[in-house]
Amino acid sequence: MTQLQDSMVKIESTGVTQNTKDMLQQLKTVTIIGSGTMGNGITHVFAQSGFNVHMMDINQAAMDRALVTIGKNMDRQVLKGTLTEEAKQAALARITTYTDMVEAVKNADIVVEAATENIDLKVKIFLELDKLCPAHTILATNTSSISITRIASHTKRPGKVIGMHFMNQVPVMKLIEIINGYATETEVTNTIFHLSQYLGKVPCIVNDYPGFISNRILMPLINEAILSLQEGVAGVTEIDTIMKLGMAHPMGPLQLADFIGLDTCYSIMNVLHMGFGATKYAPATLLANMVQAGFYGVKSGEGFYKYTPGSKDMVVSERFQNKSWKI
C-alpha cells in the first residue's frame, strides 16, 4: 500500500482512478454531527485512524460525556493490547468539540451526520451543511433507513451526498454499509469505499431502497419476534433462546431490539411500512405501545429486559415474566 502525499488515507495504487486519489488526498479533517452512541463511536474510529475530528453537538455536556465514553473504550483497547497508551492520548488530542456548526464544518473535508433517526431533523441539518461546508466536502449520513436520495434532494450537491451506515458498537463492528443515492457520484462512492477500508472496516455498497439491506432484513425479523411475544406464542426467554441456540445468533432478537433502542426499531419499521406500503412491515402494536410509554430498552433502563447499572445479568422485565401474558 502506498501513502498519498499529504493525505491521511493509504490506498491500493491499482484500480483507483486519479479523481478518487485526489478526493482521498483531501481527507484530513472530519466533522461528526452528534455525540450520542453512534456519534462518539464514529469519532473514536476516525480519531484513532489519524484524522483531525470535529465533534459537533448543540449540547456541550453531551459531548463531555461522549469524550469520557471514548476514553473508557480506548482504555479497554489498551488493556487488551490493541492500542498503546501513547496512541490513545494522541487520538484523544485529535478530537475537538464544537457547539457552533459554522466553526465545526468550515474546514471539513467530510461530514458524517449521526443525529437522531428523524427525517425532518436530518433535512434541516443537511440544508445547513450544504450552505456552510466548502464546495469539495462530502456529506455522509449514518442513517440506518432514511432515503439518501431524499436527503440529498434538499442540497445543491446531491452528487456528494452518500450513506455511510456504521454498526453499533462502532469501534468493534467491522461493517460499513455504503448507500448510493440516485445522484451520488461514482468517485464519491469510491472515496468512501477506500476510506472505510482505511478505517479498518469492511465496506459493502448497496442502493437506496427503504431499510437498505441491513435493516430491510433485520427489522422485520425483530418485529416478528415482538409479534410472537404479543400473540403469546412464547415468552421473552424462549424466543431469544431459540434464535441463539437454533439459528446461531449471538444475541436474541428481543435483546438486540433493546440494545438498538425500541424507539429506533419503531422508527425504522415505520420507514419500511411507508416506503413499501406493505402490511408485513407494519410495526407491532406492542412495539408502538412500549415506545409511547417510554420503554426503549437499554437506554431507558427497561424494555423486554430490565437493566441495572453495573450488572450483566439478563433479567426479563416483570411485564413479560408471566408466560400467559398477551396484549
CATH domain topology of the largest domain: Rossmann fold
How much is the average pLDDT?
92
Total strands: 12
- State the strand order across the main sheet: 5-4-3-6-7-8-9-10
Order of helices and strands: EEHEHEHHEHEHEHEEHEHHHHHEE
In CATH, the homologous superfamily of the largest domain goes by the name NAD(P)-binding Rossmann-like Domain
Uncertain runs with pLDDT below 50, 5 residues or more? 1-6
> Helix/strand/pairing class, anyone?
alpha/beta
* Major beta-sheet overview: 8 strands, mixed
CATH architecture label name of the largest domain: 3-Layer(aba) Sandwich
Q: Into how many domains do the coordinates divide?
A: 2
Beta percentage is 5-15%
Oligomer: single chain
Helix content: 40-55%
Written overview of the protein:
Strand 11 and strand 12 form a beta hairpin. 45% of the residues lie in helices and 15% in strands. It has helices at 18-26, 37-48, 60-80, 85-93, 101-105, 119-132, 148-152, 186-198, 214-230, 236-247, 253-260, 262-276, 285-292, and strands spanning 2-3, 10-11, 29-33, 52-56, 95-98, 110-113, 138-141, 161-166, 175-180, 202-207, 305-306, 315-316. It has two domains: 3-207, Rossmann fold (3-Layer(aba) Sandwich), CATH 3.40.50; 214-317, N-(1-d-carboxylethyl)-l-norvaline Dehydrogenase, domain 2 (Orthogonal Bundle), CATH 1.10.1040. It is of the alpha/beta class. Helix 1 (18-26) packs across helix 8, helix 2 packs across helix 3 (60-80) and helix 9 packs across helix 11.
